[in-house]
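Example 553, ligand iron/sulfur cluster.
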Amino acid sequence: MTKTVSDVICPFCGTLCDDLEVVVSDDGKKILEVLNACAIGNEKFHHAGAEDRPKRPRMQQPDGSYKEVSYDDAVEYTAQMLAKAKKPLMYGWSSTNCEAQSIGHEVAELVGAVVDNTATVCHGSTLIALQDVGIPSCTLGEIKNRADRILYWGCNPAHAHPRHMSRYSIFPRGFFTGKGSQSRKLFVIDPRMSDTAKLADYHFQVEQGRDYELLQAFRTALKGEWLPDTVAGIPKERIYEGAEVLKSGRFGIIFFGMGVTQTRGKNHNIDAAISLTKDLNEYTKFNIMPMRGHYNVTGSGEVLGWQYGFPYCVDLSRGFARYNPGDSSSNDLLVRGEVDAVLTIASDPGAHFPISSVQKIWNLPSVAIDPHITPTTEVSKLHVPVAFVGIECGGNAYRMDNVPIDCRKVVDPPEGMLTDEEFLTRVLKRVKELKGVA
Amino acid sequence: MEAGKNHPAYREACGIIELDKADFKRLGAWPNTNVRVNSAHGTVVVKAVPATQGPHPGIAFIPMGPWANRVINPYTYSTGTPTFKGTPIEVEPAQGEVVLDGIQVVYEVVRGGKK
Ligand code: SF4
């Protein structure tokens, strides 16, 4: 007999779907089927049961191969490394639960570490912009029930957040949006004819790197002011038309992604996007929301926020919290050689950081905590495999609209495997001993 | 990618560069052959595939991953975020060369001292 676990949360992307059903074997050890998830979510659940998954920590040998070690040795190595370091970097946190994050921060305080999360290569510029100009936002539920103007700017949910459009933005029939996609107008701003753009009522194929100009042009058009014949490759007539359609809606939302946060201009682009939202509120109700990638990067920002007042790049090395992106951010610290040990958890900087930063991780004492084998684990001195949060253990995560959702455990982790939380708790205990605090 | 980054599927998905039809002509390369991508920041071999979300002549696209990160602009301009988009590149055919897997493409630099 199999069992079906319902209302399972998908621990993959920031959409944090909460309607999955997972069929597990009778002994509660194997996942047999996953219903309702998109292809990526599905794969994540199935990968958890992969045969070739490492089950014990692995230490890199001088010849570059890896040797299995016990969790006790791994705790000892990690604690020693952190306690000895002058300024260690503790990076990642976006694919684990808030409970583990909180314990990690306690360790960071004791050893004077810099805590940074994946926003640093993703929506960091968004966080800078919203500290500058604020953010008028809402929840995904409100969008489903009310939004009739939807803009995806520099993001491609068809691939990165596959169920975002069907659950929240374009297709669902909400309370005031009974006709589903027919009652909504979809705008996509993207230099490519992306698969999301193919669904759009209005696709603005902005020239790469000219988002700032186009955002400001929309603001100008809203006010009916003069525009040059083309802006960022878009004829002015289309910009005026687009501005009118946005204005005429009852409830609008701008979703934006890496296409704006990582391009030239960065936080200034977001600044302009938020200002456009603000301007649109002169005419109708408009909101803006970043398309957060990892399922709990938002949670990391929240936990850091309530503990230290800053959402990422938190430098605790002086005994109090400092925040200065560009100075206390992972890539800047690594490239400048200002950290002397690196702990990564629940993220993959080996794949997602510029190679010059990865080189630095390779040269330093380093620990990677991750269920998978990734480029990060393979450049780190110690790899600690852990249970999958949201599959093999529960815990809290924040959806991209800052709604906290409790993840569920659906199967047991492989025998003897620790969770992020358990591993960090043991490291914390050992660090306390080493530092002589009770 | 959730199937594992040490598996060939990762290379198939991210060790590629999407080129516009017009750019294939300019380059003189066939679709689905290997090319070398050079920028001011590094060099990497990837498989050139026809863009599925085009047309966008002059713009090439390498998905986020270790291949892209060998050529992108690492400078953060004091924002903390490297400049992942809009890096000027040159592409040349590289028929005899292989596309490394997700781990080896990192090792080639960090262990091998390549740029
Ligand atoms: S859209 Fe995101 S959260 Fe939802 S099933 Fe797919 S990967 Fe999981």
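Summary: Chain A is about 35% helix and 20% strand.
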